[in-house]
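Renewal narrative, Specific Aim 1. Our central claim is that a sequence can be written position by position from structural information alone. The example that follows is taken directly from our test logs and has not been curated for this report. It begins with the C-alpha cells describing the chain, in the order in which they were read.
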C-alpha cells in the first residue's frame, strides 16, 4: 500500500480516529481550492519520520496538499474547541483555518495530517481561513528547527504556495502548510465542553484522550486526575526546554496549549537575541502577558484552567474535587525547576550536581540580563572557554561591559569546574551538543521570506538544512553571528 492509500484509509480502520466521536466534536467539510499551486519547501526528515517514499512529492500530492483534491476515502474535518485568550474567556473557537485530512500509521506511531490555510470552516469566525506565505514559512522552519533541537513539537512536512491574494496588513500571497502530530488536541478542546455544560460530551472526549494518548492513566484511582498530573509534568518539561533555548512562544492561550506537551501553533514566536527576561516577542501583546520570563507561570495558569474544565468529570464535594485537582498540579513547579537546573547544568558543562549550582546559574543569567548579552552566542562561547583560563576571558569576556562582574562570576565557575576535575577537551563536545550555534532568529526567517516573496525559495531550503543541524558550526558564519542592526526593527504579531 502506498502512502496515499494509507492516509486515506487509516481513519476507517482504526478506532483511534477523532472522527469516531461524532458530529458534536467536529464538522466534516472539504478544503477550498487554491489556484495554480506550486511547491515552496519540504522537510525530508519529516517525510522519513512518516515513512513516506522518496517520490512522495508528486503532482497529485501537490493538489491534495494544497486543498484541491482528495484521495479516495478521505473525509476531512475541522474540530471545535474554546479557550482563554490573553487570560480572558474567548468563547467558541475551533480549527478556523485548519483541516484534518486523516492519519498515517508508521512503525507503531499514528500521525494526524492537517492542512493549515485550506480555507474557511464553521470556526473561522470573521477570518478567511487562509494562511499567507510569510507566516507559513515561519511555522514550517520553526517546527523543524525545534524538532532538531530536541524540543517536543508538531512537525511540518511541506509548504505549497499560490498566487492567490490574501489580505492581512497588506495583500500577500496564499500558502498551505502540511503539519503533522500524534494529536492536535488542546486544553481548549476540554474547556469547550466543560464551559458549555456538555458533560456527557466532555466524558466522551476524556475517554478518547485517555484511551489513545494516556492509557497508563486508566488504571489510576481517578483517571482524569492522573491525566492532569501527566499533562502538568509534560508541560513543565516543555517550558524548561523553551526557556533554556531562549524560545518565546508569543501567544500562550489555552487553545494553543497541547494536551500532549508539544509546542503548538507557531505564530508571533521569537528566539532571544540579547538576553532580556522581559522580552515580548508578540507586537500584539500590549500588556506583556507572554513575556519570556512569564511563560512558566502562564503555563501554570493555563493548567489551572484545564483543571477547572475537568471538575465535572469527578464526583463528590466541589471543594474536595478542587483540592484533588490542585494536588495533581503541584508537581509542575518542582518538575520545571528541576528540569531547568538539569538543562542549565548541561549548558554550563557541569557533569555532576552540587548544592551551589542554582546560585551559579542564577548569577550567570543575571549577568547576561545586565548587559542584554546575546543568549545563544554567550553559551556557545562559554563552551569554548578553557577552564583554567586567565581572567581576561577572551571572546567570552568581550561580551560584557562590566568586566569586573564577569571576572567574579568566571572565578566561581572555574573553581566549580576544578572541583569536579573537568577536562576541557571532554567538556566542550558535551556543551556544544546542548548549546546550539544556530537558532531561527527573526532576521534569518525574514531573509528567507523576502526572497520567497520574490519567487526564490532557495534560501528556505538552505536555512532548513542549517536548522536541522543546529549544534554544528554552520558553513555560512553569518547564520551564527549577531543579528544585523535592521533586525531590531522587525515586528511580529498574531497575524504572523
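The sequence written for that structure reads:
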Amino acid at each position: 500500500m502506498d502512502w496515499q492509500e494509507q492516509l486515506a484509509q487509516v481513519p476507517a480502520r482504526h478506532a483511534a480516529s477523532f472522527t469516531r466521536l461524532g458530529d458534536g466534536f467536529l464538522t466534516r467539510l472539504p478544503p477550498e481550492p487554491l489556484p495554480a499551486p506550486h511547491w515552496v519547501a519540504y522537510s525530508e526528515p519529516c517525510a522519513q519520520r512518516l515513512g513516506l517514499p522518496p517520490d512522495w512529492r508528486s503532482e497529485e500530492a501537490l493538489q491534495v496538499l494544497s486543498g484541491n483534491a482528495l484521495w479516495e476515502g478521505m473525509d476531512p474535518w475541522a474540530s471545535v474547541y474554546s479557550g482563554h485568550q490573553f487570560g480572558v474567556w474567548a468563547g467558541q473557537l475551533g480549527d478556523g483555518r485548519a483541516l484534518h485530512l486523516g492519519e498515517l500509521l508508521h512503525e507503531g506511531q499514528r500521525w494526524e495530517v492537517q492542512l493549515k490555510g485550506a480555507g474557511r470552516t464553521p470556526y473561522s469566525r470573521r477570518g478567511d481561513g487562509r494562511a499567507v506565505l510569510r507566516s507559513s514559512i515561519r511555522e514550517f522552519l520553526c517546527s523543524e528547527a525545534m524538532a532538531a533541537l530536541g524540543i517536543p513539537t508538531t512537525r511540518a512536512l511541506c509548504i505549497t504556495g499560490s498566487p492567490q491574494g490574501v489580505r492581512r496588513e497588506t495583500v500577500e500571497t496564499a500558502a498551505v502548510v502540511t503539519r503533522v502530530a500524534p494529536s492536535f488536541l488542546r486544553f481548549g478542546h476540554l474547556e469547550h465542553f466543560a464551559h458549555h455544560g456538555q458533560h456527557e460530551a466532555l466524558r466522551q472526549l476524556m475517554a478518547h484522550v485517555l484511551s489513545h494518548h494516556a492509557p497508563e492513566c486508566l488504571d489510576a484511582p481517578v483517571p482524569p486526575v492522573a491525566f492532569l498530573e501527566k499533562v502538568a509534568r509534560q508541560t513543565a518539561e516543555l517550558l524548561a526546554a523553551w526557556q533554556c533555548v531562549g524560545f518565546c512562544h508569543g501567544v500562550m492561550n489555552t487553545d494553543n496549549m497541547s494536551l500532549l506537551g508539544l509546542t503548538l501553533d507557531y505564530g508571533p514566536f521569537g528566539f532571544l537575541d540579547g538576553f532580556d527576561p522581559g522580552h515580548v516577542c508578540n507586537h500584539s501583546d500590549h500588556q506583556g502577558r507572554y513575556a519570556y520570563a512569564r511563560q512558566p507561570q502562564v503555563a501554570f495558569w493555563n493548567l489551572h484552567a484545564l483543571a477547572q474544565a475537568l471538575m465535572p468529570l469527578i464526583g463528590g464535594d466541589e471543594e474536595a474535587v478542587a483540592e484533588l485537582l490542585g494536588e495533581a498540579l503541584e508537581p509542575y513547579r518542582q518538575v520545571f525547576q528541576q528540569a531547568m537546573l538539569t538543562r542549565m547544568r548541561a549548558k554550563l558543562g557541569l557533569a555532576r550536581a552540587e548544592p551551589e549550582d542554582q546560585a551559579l546559574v542564577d548569577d550567570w543569567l543575571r549577568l547576561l540580563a545586565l548587559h542584554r548579552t546575546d543568549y545563544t552566542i554567550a553559551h556557545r562561547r562559554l563552551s569554548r572557554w578553557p577552564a583554567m583560563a586567565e581572567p581576561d576571558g577572551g571572546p567570552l569576556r568581550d561580551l560584557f561591559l562590566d568586566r569586573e562582574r564577569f571576572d567574579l562570576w568566571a572565578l566561581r565557575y572555574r573553581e566549580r569546574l576544578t572541583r569536579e576535575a573537568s577536562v576541557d577537551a571532554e567538556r566542550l563536545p558535551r556543551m556544544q551538543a546542548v548549546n546550539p550555534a544556530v537558532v531561527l532568529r527573526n532576521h534569518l526567517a525574514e531573509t528567507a521570506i523576502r526572497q520567497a516573496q520574490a519567487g526564490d525559495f532557495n534560501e528556505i531550503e538552505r536555512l532548513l538544512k542549517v536548522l536541522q543541524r543546529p549544534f554544528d558550526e554552520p558553513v555560512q558564519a553569518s547564520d551564527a553571528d549577531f543579528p544585523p542592526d535592521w533586525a531590531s526593527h522587525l515586528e511580529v504579531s498574531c497575524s504572523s
